[in-house]
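Sample intake sheet
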Amino acid sequence: MMRLLLAGFLSTGMALGPAPAQRAVEGPTSVEWTGADDVPETTPETTKGSEDEGERGAEGQRPPPPSAARPGNRTLRVAVGLDPSAPGTKAERSLLATLSGTVKASEAIGVDARRLRIGAPSAREVCRDGRDDLVVMIGYVPQREEAVLLPYDCVLDVPLAVRSSGAADEAVLVATLWDEHDALVRDGVQERRRRGRLGPKARAGIVAGVVVLVVGAAVGLLVANALRDETVVLKVGP
């Protein structure tokens, strides 16, 4: 009898206790790996975008392309003088001498300077001669008593910004004026058509042709009068 009870007890205890293979596992069943194998690979789109940003950054540091109107190896032709609004006082002539020396010794750009005679016409009329690229006059504007610089762009046929008389001794004056010219070109201002300047031989030929025409017309009138038939009418009184 005791043997039967002992055997039943042992068989019941073995049935109630969970088997080691069936015991629930506590804690996480898996661990995420954060090693180099799980680092996402760089896609072609990401790489291309980085390259594009690098190129844009490099282009942002490049200087703007030079204007098509900027002279290549030739120098700028600049004329300086007194505007008709300047009577030619001693102070004005002294300022003109300073301006002339500054233009001739211009920095950052080559210049072929000339000085206009006292009593020269306005800058626009000087530009019509087709000889200069820039004309800088000393004159006066309303609301200002002191003399100022009146630059004019002959290539574009437009006046440039008025400068104070203190700019007459700035070494980069001409370069600054031409930078303003470049800005106008980039804004769409077109160059005016420049007429070619007649040389001495061409002018002499035109004058000779006019003289021949005048003399020929005079001779023709004389010959026509000499050959014209004249009729004389005599009236006899009663």
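Comment: Residues 200-227 form the longest helix (28 residues). Residues 211 and 217 are 10 Å apart (CA to CA).
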